[in-house]
Amino acid sequence: MRFWRIPLDAGEQVIPVGELYIIADRCKECGFCIEFCPNGVLGVSGDFNSKGHHPPKVKPNYECNNCGICEVICPEFAIYSKVREKRCFTASDLIRFEEMAASGRQGEKG
User: Fold this and answer.
1) In CATH, what number is assigned to the domain containing residue 40?
2) Which one-letter DSSP state was computed for residue 60?
3) Scanning 1, 56, 57, 85, which has its CA 20 to 30 A from the CA of 68?
4) CA distance 34 to 36
């Protein structure tokens, strides 16, 4: 999907930026948080927790939008998020969304 302009009310829109907290020792590596994250913020860590599982980690250069899906879907209550900041919608948000959508489409083809 290609956006050709910024929405007229973009200056009035506020984007919450979340800070993710992962309680590694509670994680049982079910992968639900990684699978259902709408922004693809989470990935599998190379580290082990005390149970021998790989907890999730936040990918570099990805931004949590504090939707709370990971909190709701985690069966072990091992992840939660808090709003770190609220910022205004910008043109770079459209560019980042287009890049994420394009990389998602490429992943489906391969």
Assistant:
1) 3.30.70.20
2) T
3) 1
4) 6
